[in-house]
Amino acid sequence: MKAEKRRRSVFRPKEKGLRKIFGDLEAEIMDVIWGLGRATVADVHKVLEGQREIAYTTVKTVMGRLAEKGYLRRTSAERAHVYTPTKRREQFLREVSDEILTGLFVDFGEPIAAHLLETVTRLDPSSLDRLQALIEERRAREGQQGEGS
Prior knowledge:
The chain is mainly alpha-helical.
């Protein structure tokens, strides 16, 4: 079994949803495969063709590239390749978010922490209470761990 390739995420902050990380067609294909759980090129092509005109070979090429990049796993089943995501959608988003936030904190430290708090509060005022509760829970856990040492 091949070791998973280390991939660097590209982050496009002005794009929407998965397009912040993937190209347009890559994002559409990943959405379809995450939704289906596993799919052949024909399965994905059928879904996408219901939304717009797209060539089967284009879907095949992009799915192959997603597999080469390590986002999809390709296995042979009967006469077709079956593609499955290498990570669940939630796990992928968590890892990408972690990579992006870690990079921001390493590079910008305190200013990014203050800006993050202001942005979250501005976009969802009730989130301040939830953040406070998370902070208190974390401090309580750390306090319990410290007592056991």
